[in-house]
Design goal:
There is one protein chain. The chain is of the alpha+beta class and about 110 residues long. The protein contains four helices and four strands. The chain has helices spanning about 10-25, 40-50, 60-65, 75-85, and strands at about 1-5, 25-30, 95, 100.
Length: about 110
Amino acid sequence: MIKIYHNPRCSKSRQGLAILENSGKPFEVVKYLEDNLSFETLNEMIMLLNIKPIDLVRKNEAIWKSDYKGKTLSDSEVIQAMVNNPKLIERPIVINEGKAIIGRPPELIKDIL
């Protein structure tokens, strides 16, 4: 089943959700700010996205700038930072049949439906 990791306060995430709703396909919404992601889940998502953990970080978030910017972090430390501070996770993320995409811009979601 399709999954969208969604933040209702984010306009891009809401646009991504609308694309899924309009697709007519069944999907699951994961509100990752409420249901914290485990290290393992986040690591699996990063592997499906085929990116480095740092590429999933929202670097303009205040918590990143104050606590992490300019530091040399291992991939595991970057993942742990996102687990501890889920606002740092780029959004929305859609997973379908072993493929994943960051919906920025949201139209990219159509590529894996």
